[in-house]
What does this fold into?
Amino acid sequence: MARTVKEIKDEMTAEFISNSTVVEKYGLDSTKTFEEQFSKASIESILFYVFAFCAWTVEKLFDTHKTEVTNYIDEMKPHSLRWYVNKVKDFRFGQSLIEDTDRYSDEGLTEKEIEDRQIVKYAAASEQNATLYIKVAGSGHKPISEEQQQALTEYLAEIKDAGVRIVVRNANADKIKMSLRIFYNPMILQSNGNSLQGGTPVIDAIQQYVENLPFNGEFRKVDLVDALQQVEGVVMPELVSVSTSVATSYYKILDDAYEKPFSGYYEFDTESTTIEYIPYENVSY
It folds into this structure.
């Protein structure tokens, strides 16, 4: 980005009055600034302003050239999955694009107003069978409204590369439940899993792990076990089974070691999760 004329002039004059030869010839005071020793009407000040203005003009021309080249490249090359994700997050509900572009005008809008119109807070893109799937969610990992999805679909049809088929996936969170056996230290946890100090640390750890997964992040069985091993009082966690549900009440057992959510995020089903707490006893021989 081009510097201002003042910034350029200040840099030049600072260098000018720091030069020992200039200080000697002009009889300058090295503790004072250029403005304190030269008036705005002086030939030196006028010349530095002219030089600074010329430098500013060149920098502005380079900025313009860079913008033109960047736009040309964007228009000519096929776009990446990351580009689509960023564009979906840039989508503004209730605002039209600048004609013949894939950009919005910020004129007359505050940063808060722009942010409020950008209703897609989470997005992820993947490609399968010549189709681009884009998962989206609004604030709080909630689906956007049907009206908002329709506007988003129209927006994507306007900005996408020719020939690209896009499917927007805007769904409620995948439900996830599990069955566990927790071998615990009776000096720290109770038989129902509650801490002797109060609270439900095992349930809290599972909830925290699920909620902290990044949007469209993988649920990994081994990572959940690792998280449970960090809970005070848990000696050994055994993950018996994990089941997930997509938009229905029907659960399917997760046989693989990991899975990505259909909607992009999970919701921990605490009521359907079963945990057997077993006091741990050292085995002696």
